[in-house]
Automatic annotation (TrEMBL):
<feature type="binding site">
    <location>
        <position position="322"/>
    </location>
    <ligand>
        <name>FAD</name>
    </ligand>
</feature>
<dbReference type="InterPro" id="IPR050151">
    <property type="entry name" value="Class-I_Pyr_Nuc-Dis_Oxidored"/>
</dbReference>
<dbReference type="GO" id="GO:0050660">
    <property type="term" value="F:flavin adenine dinucleotide binding"/>
</dbReference>
<feature type="binding site">
    <location>
        <position position="281"/>
    </location>
    <ligand>
        <name>NAD(+)</name>
    </ligand>
</feature>
<dbReference type="Pfam" id="PF07992">
    <property type="entry name" value="Pyr_redox_2"/>
</dbReference>
<dbReference type="InterPro" id="IPR001100">
    <property type="entry name" value="Pyr_nuc-diS_OxRdtase"/>
</dbReference>
<keyword id="KW-0963">Cytoplasm</keyword>
<feature type="binding site">
    <location>
        <begin position="153"/>
        <end position="155"/>
    </location>
    <ligand>
        <name>FAD</name>
    </ligand>
</feature>
<feature type="domain" description="FAD/NAD(P)-binding">
    <location>
        <begin position="5"/>
        <end position="337"/>
    </location>
</feature>
<protein>
    <recommendedName>
        <fullName>Dihydrolipoyl dehydrogenase</fullName>
        <ecNumber>1.8.1.4</ecNumber>
    </recommendedName>
</protein>
<feature type="domain" description="Pyridine nucleotide-disulphide oxidoreductase dimerisation">
    <location>
        <begin position="356"/>
        <end position="465"/>
    </location>
</feature>
<feature type="binding site">
    <location>
        <begin position="190"/>
        <end position="197"/>
    </location>
    <ligand>
        <name>NAD(+)</name>
    </ligand>
</feature>
<keyword id="KW-0547">Nucleotide-binding</keyword>
<dbReference type="InterPro" id="IPR016156">
    <property type="entry name" value="FAD/NAD-linked_Rdtase_dimer_sf"/>
</dbReference>
<dbReference type="GO" id="GO:0004148">
    <property type="term" value="F:dihydrolipoyl dehydrogenase (NADH) activity"/>
</dbReference>
<feature type="disulfide bond" description="Redox-active">
    <location>
        <begin position="49"/>
        <end position="54"/>
    </location>
</feature>
<keyword id="KW-0560">Oxidoreductase</keyword>
Length: 475
């Protein structure tokens, strides 16, 4: 007889495991199915984020930043380092340990919340009495039935046509985290979040990095003023970014990869590199879900079709995270997971897409929430802008990192904050104040009147809010 559950979550990534935990907290009998494996073949909960995404990339970004600081910046602090050496094996092992700690943390949370875990790949079989029957293909095949199904199967890296990932020469985000030796020359196709973060890691460790971007503008989704400031910093660091390129044939061989492309001037270029990272976006992971068995609707991209509440076309079947519409962000998936669990319980779960923060963990970091200046101009909304540079911030000077600025955009009449954009040190942390402010419909004046600790980087946020009314105190 099939095992019965109130809620079955397919996928143990940020959206899935959080949905399972919240559902269990609400008193449901919950199961979660996930197929990720560690090196030993055991479960590796946490999805793409924990295993080959957010967590390992941040571990390598931190390690590589330490290495660059020791080699180039410690001397400014009166610290002289002699005989600096890179132990890449140990750096990668530390990254793997950080991943394992997160894997184990999710497994512990499942035990704590009495969630039944199945290690394998789940697929729909049929609608059944009491809900839907799923097949779990793992070490042993099992049939389970859930009254409510939450699909949280995430996304996969998009391959370039004619250049499939081999994770040796042509790398996805997965292979980019496992390069065994620092390449002399590295190319990246795509200057999005993954491309810039991975390019930063390997540049700091000694690679000559070229980023090829098809669009004519750099970071088109970012506020233009912030994007220009970021590119200026990346150019200074030696990250070569070519915009408006058209990539042609890619040849992979024993000696590396040859990338043929046409640059923005229309000139043909042949680039030989040791490794190529392709980061041109991600596609929803619905292959093998057997959605057709129950009539689950997918769109033309292969994503699951949902309404504003994450309901699919089937009763009691929900979908969240990268496998549905909206930004492919781990924290967006988490919020949807909580909201869906609460909706199943008859509560009113809520996700505000207008206050979801975005972060690129380069150095300088880039973070933003709300609308950009170009978006406000396009919709014809009257607004005021205020900026404040980290160059005039005492804490940034003490850190030795004064790159960048904070920018506020507020309604010209009501002063409501419409967007906050940052590039500079630790802005991944500073952006939360802006998210809270916007969630509570705060005005720029509200932030300008709040006391901020001195000296702190957060004072740049206050000063940018003051700049809306041309009242900065330190610039």
């Amino acid at each position: 007889m099939s095992k019965q559950f109130d809620v079955i979550v397919i996928g143990g990534g940020p959206g899935g495991y959080i949905a399972a935990i919240r559902a269990a907290q609400l008193g449901f009998n919950v199961a979660c199915v996930d197929e990720w494996k560690n090196a030993a073949g055991g479960p590796a909960l946490g999805g793409t984020c924990t295993n080959v995404g957010c967590i390992p990339s941040k571990a390598l970004l931190q390690s590589s930043e330490h290495f660059e600081h020791a080699g180039k910046h410690f001397v400014d602090h009166g610290i002289n380092v002699k005989g600096l050496e890179l132990d890449l094996g140990k750096m990668l092992a530390r990254k793997d340990q950080v991943v394992k700690q997160n894997n184990d943390g999710v497994a512990y949370l499942f035990k704590k919340n009495k969630i039944t875990f199945f290690h394998g790949r789940a697929s729909f079989v049929k609608a059944a009495d009491g809900g839907y029957e799923l097949k779990v293909a793992g070490a042993a095949e099992e049939a389970i039935v859930g009254k409510h199904i939450i699909v949280a199967t995430g996304s996969n890296a998009r391959a370039l046509p004619g250049a499939p990932f081999d994770e040796e020469n042509i790398l996805s985000n997965d292979g980019a985290l496992r390069v065994g030796a620092v390449p002399k020359k590295l190319a990246l196709i795509g200057s999005g979040v993954i491309g810039l973060e991975m390019g930063s890691v390997w540049r700091r460790l000694g690679a000559e990095v070229t980023v090829l971007e098809g669009l004519p503008t750099f970071l088109g989704a970012v506020d233009e003023q912030i994007a220009k400031e970021a590119k200026k910093a990346f150019d200074k660091q030696g990250l070569k970014i070519e915009l408006g390129v058209k990539v042609g044939e890619i040849k992979s061989g024993k000696k590396g990869v040859n990338v043929a492309y046409t640059n923005a001037k229309g000139e043909a270029v042949s680039l030989d590199v040791d490794k190529l990272i392709v980061s041109i976006g991600r596609v929803p992971n619905t292959v093998g879900l057997n959605a057709e068995a129950v009539g689950l609707a997918l769109d033309e991209r292969g994503a699951i079709t949902v309404d504003g509440d994450c309901k699919t076309n089937l009763p009691n079947v929900w979908a969240i995270g990268d496998v549905v519409r909206g930004p492919m962000l781990a924290h967006k998936a988490e919020e949807e997971g909580v909201a869906v669990a609460e909706r199943i319980a008859g509560q009113h779960g809520h996700v505000n897409f207008n206050t979801i923060p975005w972060v690129i963990y380069t150095s300088p970091e880039i973070a933003w929430v709300g609308q950009t200046e170009q978006q406000l101009k396009a919709e014809g909304r009257a607004y005021k802008a205020g900026t404040f540079p980290f160059l005039a911030n005492g804490r940034a000077r003490a850190l030795g990192d004064t790159t960048g600025m904070v920018k506020f955009l507020a309604d010209a009449t009501t002063d409501e904050i419409l967007g906050v954009h940052m590039v500079g040190p630790q802005v991944s942390e500073l952006i939360s104040e802006a998210v809270v402010a916007m969630e509570f419909k705060a005005s720029a004046e509200d932030i300008a009147r709040i006391c901020h600790a001195h000296p702190s980087l957060s004072e740049a946020t206050k000063e940018a809010a003051l700049a809306i009314d041309k009242r900065t105190l330190n610039f």
